[in-house]
Amino acid sequence: MHKILIKNIQQLVQVRETGLHPIKGIDMSELPSISDAWLAIENDIIVGYGKMEEWPGISDWSHLEVIDASGKIVFPTYCDSHTHIVFAGTRESEFVDRINGLSYEEIALRGGGIINSAKKMQTANEEELYKGALLRINEMVLQGTGAIEIKSGYGLSLADELKMLRVIKKLKETLSIPIKSTFLGAHAIPPEFKENRQAYIDLIINEMLPAIANEQLADYSDVFCERNYFTPEETLLILKAAKQYGIAAKVHAEQLSNSGGVLAGVKADAISVDHLEYVGDEEIAALLGSDTMPVILPGAAFFLSLPNPPAKKMIQAGLPLAIASDFNPGSSPSGNLNLMNAIACIQYGLTPEQTINASTLNGAYAMGLINDYGSITIGKKANFVITKEIPSMAYLPYAFGSNLIEQVYINGKLFKGF
Ligand code: NIG
Ligand code: FE
Fold first, then answer.
1. 269 FRET partner, CA 20 to 30 A, in 22, 125, 295, 335?
2. For 178-231, how does the pLDDT look when each residue is reduced to its tens digit (9 = 90+)?
3. Which domains, and CATH codes, for the chain?
4. 3-state class of 408 per DSSP?
5. Ligand 1: residues whose CB is within 6 Å?
6. Residue ranges of the alpha helices (H) in 260-394?
């Protein structure tokens, strides 16, 4: 048995006795922490914590690794519930087009955007896709992330959606962090279906979903509900079809306009609705009566210069909130949740406490992992971050340009790269 004792932790953050429920409303301002703390790990599980002055001691010192975390902060790894990190080729030329005055939607209408990534996907093979995703995952883990959801959606054909999902499956099988797989065939209408969108929706429902269910390739299904993409009615149709295979829903909602994604998601019992820049009172009211997690993606809003999502308003209304990276080549080429949290603090007025609740425990809920991840809880997996020496947790979003993550432990082992 491998045992670790981390002692003299300046602050042990996000300590929860049960940690089985998302954090909502006013409770999001509270981040339970222990100062001058110890944390004990056995193999891959958290087995104890407390204040240094109350440390019970240990009878068996064999196989025990002791780590001194003086001046450092320990918190659970981030749970990134929304990414598109399996992709072929980057899109910095579109970034330059936007600097020169085109909008994200104008670029998409010219055949750029998601369709551009789908073209690149057609010629990519599984091995190179796997390698590219692995590089991104290694970078993300070193930045503090210990659980990742990954979407398909750059395939837009049966063969290429399956190809993406098989790559995600291989990542799941070969890596020791939890990965959740989301089928996003309804990410855009492929050009060859422009005049017959119903045929593409039929393809999703009648061919893609059965094949995906048959190979057990998806934990969730997702739809980009937006003008020029999929309507709320189409969204519901696709999510309902997926549900018949036991695949739960997620929705890309209210990103570029108020287009009904949240209401469709709530109707479909979605585990999360994501983006939310154009959320209004009606959406907030619907979410209040649901178990659906609202997820904001500050990287995409920042990168595309979108309006801020009403994050504070949602919390004030009593909602929970999660933060994810949306790591993808078109709208958020970063998986750094430290940065996403900083944007949420600086631009949306969230407190550092709210952002940590959003990116750990609530993120875990938004990807069905709350039982084992997202908090320092006895019995949960030992996935945690040790920071560099920093004065306080608020220093993390404050010093937004610095890399303050010193070490990341995955399943009780120091992460050195996959
Ligand atoms: O989450 N909003 C739709 N989908 C992605 C962007 C995909 C892309 O531009 O490649 C998103 O922002
Ligand atoms: Fe996305």
1. 335
2. 999 999 999 999 999 999 999 999 999 999 999 999 999 999 999 999 999 999
3. 3-77+375-414 (2.30.40.10), 78-365 (3.20.20.140)
4. strand
5. 113-114, 117, 224, 252, 255, 300, 326, 328-331
6. 261-267, 281-288, 298-303, 311-316, 337-348, 352-359, 361-366
